[in-house]
Specification:
About 25% of the residues lie in helices and about 30% in strands. It is an alpha+beta fold. It folds into two domains: about 120 residues, no CATH class; about 100 residues, PNP-oxidase-like (Split barrel-like). The longest helix is centred in the C-terminal third of the chain and has 22 residues.
Length: about 240
């Protein structure tokens, strides 16, 4: 839970899990005793269009039979050609009342066990209640297009954003690329000859609707230009 009256500047683990499930292009389904099944082309329906999560009490089948353990695996890959493109892994475990089939015309019912979110910062366990209480990020399904547009069409603006980094980056940066974007801000990856690190730039205001994302990006750029101008005056 967020502290009272505090403004979030980065997504929670539950928000990141939900964004991955919403924007994923593919997933791996691993059932007990079966080979992994790669499911592609999730666009339009997302993962939860193929798998419907239920609380254990809601998923009990009226037909007696064994419950089949299942694991859904998702890999969150940066849409830009940064060094080390894997941003996170999400694993959702649970039980099925019947073997998973890619030929099913309706969403497969899955009794929820747990969701595990893993990134460079560590591992977090996310409950179904936390997912159900989380609002989808309005940027999630458009993030890839927005980041690639920023890099391909306005690449000269990306280094400008570094003026907002606190503390200022060490010398020796050889490349700066946009790594991630969510309703709270933008993350840049700074690449050095033998290493890299990420810089988080929060938006002035949290994005509630997709059409608010553009103005928030422009607000960051305006702030970066003002910071650049101040630095030139002090030089």
């Amino acid at each position: 839970m967020r502290p009272f009256n505090s403004r979030a500047t980065r997504p929670t683990s539950a928000e990141r899990v939900l964004s991955v499930l919403t924007a994923a292009h593919s997933m791996t389904v691993v059932s007990d005793g079966l080979h992994p099944i790669e499911v592609h082309r999730l666009d339009g329906t997302a993962a939860m269009g193929h798998i419907h999560l239920h609380e254990p009490s809601e998923a009990v089948s009226t037909t007696p039979g064994p419950r089949i353990p299942v694991r859904l695996e998702f890999t969150d890959i940066a849409p830009t050609p940064v060094r080390d493109r894997m941003r996170a892994r999400v694993t959702v475990t649970g039980l099925l009342s019947a073997p998973y089939s890619t030929e099913a015309t309706e969403s497969t019912c899955m009794e929820f066990g747990q969701a595990v979110f893993e990134d460079h910062g560590g591992r977090a366990f996310v409950t179904l209640d936390a997912l159900l209480e989380t609002d989808p990020d309005p940027i999630a399904t458009n993030e890839a297009a927005m980041l690639t547009h920023l890099m391909d069409e306005h690449s000269e603006l990306v280094p400008l954003l570094l003026r907002l980094a606190q503390p200022q980056p060490d010398k020796g940066v050889v490349r700066v690329l946009p790594l991630a974007m969510d309703r709270y801000g933008v993350t840049l990856r700074l690449e050095y000859p033998g290493a890299h690190r990420d810089v988080r730039l929060p938006f002035p205001k949290t994005v509630a609707h997709l059409d608010q994302a553009g103005p928030q990006i422009h607000a960051l750029l305006s702030a970066a230009r003002r910071a650049s101008h101040r630095n030139q005056l002090l030089a």
